[in-house]
Amino acid sequence: MRVAIAQLDYTIGDFDGNKAKIVRSIRQAKAEGAQLVIFAEQAISGRPAYDLLNDPVFLEQCQMTLEAIAEQSAGISVIVGLPLAVDNATISAAAIIKEGKVIKYIGKRHVMSRDETLHLGNSKGFEIVRIGDMNIAVVIGSDIHIHNLDFGSDTDLIVSLKSTAYSRGVVAKRHDFYAKMAYRKHAKLIVVNHIGGQTDIVYDGWSAVFNDRGECISLLKGFEEDFTTVDLGADLPAIVLPEQDKDENVYRAIRVGLKDFFVKNGFSKAVVGISGGIDSAVTCALAVEVLGRENVRGLIMPSKYSSNHSVEDSVELAQNLGIRHDIINITDTYTSLREAITPLFEGKPFDATEENMQARIHGAMLMALSNKLGYIVLNTNNKSESAVGYTTLYGDTVGSFCILGDLYKTEVYSLARYINRRNRVIPENTLTKAPSAELRPEQKDTDSLPEYELLDAILYRLIEENQSVDEIATAGFDYDTVKKVYTLFIKNGYKRYQTPPVLRLSTVTLGKGKILPLTYDFSCLL
Amino acid sequence: MRVAIAQLDYTIGDFDGNKAKIVRSIRQAKAEGAQLVIFAEQAISGRPAYDLLNDPVFLEQCQMTLEAIAEQSAGISVIVGLPLAVDNATISAAAIIKEGKVIKYIGKRHVMSRDETLHLGNSKGFEIVRIGDMNIAVVIGSDIHIHNLDFGSDTDLIVSLKSTAYSRGVVAKRHDFYAKMAYRKHAKLIVVNHIGGQTDIVYDGWSAVFNDRGECISLLKGFEEDFTTVDLGADLPAIVLPEQDKDENVYRAIRVGLKDFFVKNGFSKAVVGISGGIDSAVTCALAVEVLGRENVRGLIMPSKYSSNHSVEDSVELAQNLGIRHDIINITDTYTSLREAITPLFEGKPFDATEENMQARIHGAMLMALSNKLGYIVLNTNNKSESAVGYTTLYGDTVGSFCILGDLYKTEVYSLARYINRRNRVIPENTLTKAPSAELRPEQKDTDSLPEYELLDAILYRLIEENQSVDEIATAGFDYDTVKKVYTLFIKNGYKRYQTPPVLRLSTVTLGKGKILPLTYDFSCLL
């Protein structure tokens, strides 16, 4: 049997657009002689739709779109995912279409994703359908990971409709899992994923077909829409799965996420506050690659505490990228703000207050440009500084979208070097100088924080590996340093509560993967 | 049998503090001759603890605290709630302590609350325990609402450990539910709730005892800690449940929520930007009641677009409240900011950009005072303006906590009148003048929005009642107005994503009760 796989980029709620893409793929599948074409989980609606999944109008649109798709499906079978209203709940389901009619729905048994748990109900789980000469087990989403799924001995093909987001290391792990599943179940296996950005999520594609020896016989592209047909009857040669390069995947994930954030929201232009540091340089370079240099501009906003090199490095970056850049010295505005409010300061000396004032003027200027001319402000925070609150709320935390916020500082450097290997745009000095907020004389990040190599190692254990302070200290880190980092992490949760959406690239994104109370006594955890 | 009920205010993670309160109540119960004392759901840990519920150190502390409590329980039985680690999940459980030993755990069957769904697993549900001469069905949390719970005919007493937050209208509904439950099950019923604020949640207390005819025979206080003992063998007279006044309950809920936000975070002082409008007046008045006038100050920040009366009304409010207030004219800082950035504006005229600039200077000044002197900025947004985005991100949206953000504008007026009936502090002019942001000449809110009576009626249907645009229009509202309000609601989700925690007072708090994607095509819903 020839089977087609359509790996597409859907927009949540754009039923006409999603339908058009799906129908186009159905036609192509028929043209290529396929008897069956398969689409991803919740393809019809786009995902994750959160509380739209409980909106009757939204669900009705899902149903109407499905019916319209079925009408276009004469002469081919279709498996397509959608949210489905059942008794007082919505489930994630696959519709099975045969001869232009929906003959069956198969639901997801366990809702596991944090993006869906609040909004979807559980269901019966996988079922076997007969299509062509094959018994096909159709499994929705994370159900494929349920321990000891028993498809029975008559199953020829397992079809896994997925919506798997990119996160570091996930691609290789996923392929390995599917290969073993096909081998162990003695069945062919097809996995169909989404691709594309949905605000803070990037679906990475890499849909695939495995034979019953667990060999990959067809692999669709990563981070791009793709379509293929495969003759499951033929003894196709095994494909060697490509090596996954972390920096390249992060780079591609950000490109997709940023592109779709702009396209799906109808935005075209971005502004970045360029500081001469690594975060704004990488953000700017990526924005230019995705949006084109004519759609990106930089704002360089030195104060009296800025070093000469920071403006020079900023200008060099902008020139390397060929983008418009303006220099606005904030000193007068800062002086004016400071003079207005200082009478209330009871004679207290210069401290973080004045640093924050400068950062907030930066924020206000970026937002003014955004409000007046429609440039979207790209936030430049990284995961290390967000984790420990080395940020100014309403200052450098402003923006509509944060593309580096799930990368530790050391990972941002790694990504910067990757970008420079492709195209040398980030100034050498930006890569080599010591990081500084430059909001007071001779400031360095290490005045307040451990060196980033150390900080990131601690944070990774704390956040990604969920280790306790004691566990991290036992692993060889200085207890007081770990305790300080942990304390900063907890105490600055209130800042992270008010920051822009962060593109998710890790397994535990701040504020999403680990949700903590804003008010609690954390001394019990030290 | 004499039973004691302890209705307490717990702090999440403060195991020593929670234990001390619990042990004190156990002693009091024994002193009053009780054979059993009952505490609320997750009393030992405080609630909601979010991902702390999956932190092994946190769970170990729960267990150690429980053991310490059991040791103090000689001569009395105890039912107390806590999170409990079971095979690879955490459940919400009741520990049954008899003769100083934990003899049994009873778990919650269905996790229903959006604050827990991501963090807790399901369990077996209620069980019957024998204590004294009674068969007691112990039910955790929302399990009491499971349809057709069958406690069997031998059950003498139903004990419902709860953690029910205040929301409009909930108190009367809850008492009615319990009365009917006791009547229908022919059993006595005791419900034990928390009281106190947990960041954005206020537990309202009102624990109660019902006889098997469904009559309330003991009612603990609302919004305060309380303790009582009841002789279940005696034929106690029925209590007439008090009328619930909405404004009074909202007022009391905010007082508790604000107080605990400060106490549990170790804060003492607040600053409010006073505009002369109703929202800042009510926020300020409530802050003074809770924190004392010596701990609250106002910042009055007129610009050249401010009317004279707005400064006068602001000063009058501050004087009525007896709080320190400072007037800082923002014109110079605004001029400086505007002159610095305007060269990039391509000659475009005055618009919302300049309004936002002024609001962001307000925000920067409030935050500067906060950073320098430790005053917590209280945000003054209301639900109507947040819903339609009639706010400036990083401007009037700044702050650590928002106490009015779950009240529509018309409800804020109602609360203001309630406050003035108690103590006439809010200036008459603030109550009667037309609302205005005063960020451009002669501005009125109604330049951009429908009258608040109309706006709030539409928003209530949209948000609280989950009605579609068509349903609202069919109910008699102008279609274009509804569509405009709906569009504003959706388009401004990005602002609500970045705003401070909002004290929850309604059944659907923005950003919590209704979670929507930030990027989607909402034309399908119009």
Question: How do the helices and strands line up, and which of them pair or pack?
Answer:
The structure is a homodimer of 526-residue chains.
Chain A: E1 2-7, H1 15-31, E2 36-38, H2 56-71, E3 77-86, E4 89-98, E5 101-107, E6 127-131, E7 134-140, E8 157-161, H3 170-185, E9 188-192, E10 195-198, E11 201-204, E12 208-210, E13 216-219, E14 226-231, H4 246-265, E15 270-274, H5 278-291, E16 296-300, H6 308-321, E17 324-327, H7 331-341, H8 352-373, E18 376-379, H9 383-388, E19 401-402, H10 409-422, H11 428-432, H12 452-464, H13 469-474, H14 479-491, H15 493-496
Parallel strand pairs in A: 1-2, 2-3, 7-8, 8-9, 15-16, 15-18, 16-17, 18-19
Antiparallel strand pairs in A: 1-14, 3-4, 4-5, 6-7, 9-12, 10-11, 12-13
Helix pairs in contact in A: 1-2, 4-5, 4-10, 5-6, 5-10, 7-8
Structure explained in plain terms:
The structure is a homodimer of 526-residue chains. By secondary structure, chain A is α/β, with parallel strands linked by helices. Chain A has two domains: 243 residues, Nitrilase/N-carbamoyl-D-aminoacid amidohydrolase; 277 residues, Rossmann fold. In chain A, strands 5-4-3-2-1-14 form a six-stranded mixed β-sheet, covered by helices on one side. In chain A, a hairpin with a 2-residue loop joins β6 and β7. In chain A, α1 packs parallel to α2. The longest helix of chain A is centred in the C-terminal third of the chain and has 22 residues. Chain A starts with a strand and ends in a 30-residue tail after the last helix. At the A-B interface, α2, α4, α7 and α8 of A face α2, α4, α7 and α8 of B.
